[in-house]
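Hi R.,

Here's the input for the zinc ion complex you asked about:
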Amino acid sequence: MRGGLVSWIAFIGLLGGLFCGCSGGGDSAVGATETPGSASREARAESAEPTAAPEDPPSEAPARPEPPAEPPAPLARARVLLIVLGDYPRDTLDAVETALRTELEVDVERIEDVPLPREAYYPPRRRYRADRLLTFLNGHLEGEPRTTRVLGLTAVDISTTKGRHRDWGVFGLGELGGRSCVISSYRLSERGRRSDELVTFRVATTAVHEVGHTLGLEHCTDPLGVMRDAEGSIRTVDTSDGRLGEYCRRRIEETAPRVLPYRDAANAP
Ligand SMILES: [Zn+2]
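And here is the predicted structure with zinc ion in place:
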């Protein structure tokens, strides 16, 4: 298993449980500067010629009011390519996109669906290896700038290696400081009490968590925050408020500052 992989993952059955390895800018105003001492020189000139006839003061056009400053264009921390792998319930996609835009302030672009890669299939457990899916998803980053991330969504069960456990089922897998992550709705749809709304919330929250890792966020201590370590329980997901939390919100300004113009400013949060 590669070092640095972090995840928010769960496992079931005999392996039941879950583990998780887991400033824009703005132009500064530049005001017109006055030559130092210009006023005093004029004053001296007047006193040197006291007999000069007074003249009418030069007529000056009334000063035009300054136009209001344009607000700075919103900037995103990254662009996230959203890729569906195989069949996937479409009704959670909008929620995932909204959560990513709102909580992480990233631009999101949906990419055409792709089939699940054969090489990621793990026959002994009839599921897909999440780490191999990350390798597959990395292929979609070719030619993309460093500010691009990719999130794969799948409905099939996914797994990875955790310690002495060769194959653990997981909710999702993301690479801390990496560029790819994947989440599965499989376990998020199966565990605990269920409703369509709750499953959608779980999927969106897990997406924010894993993409957060690729933006350099480790687990945060905010008690209800989305970057909390799930520590083996779907309850941790269900009791999250789905928000970054105060600590993570400060931290992400350091790990993934907003530098990227939105492709469409209307999509900015
Ligand atoms: Zn995690």
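One thing worth noting: The mean pLDDT is 81.

Cheers,
M.
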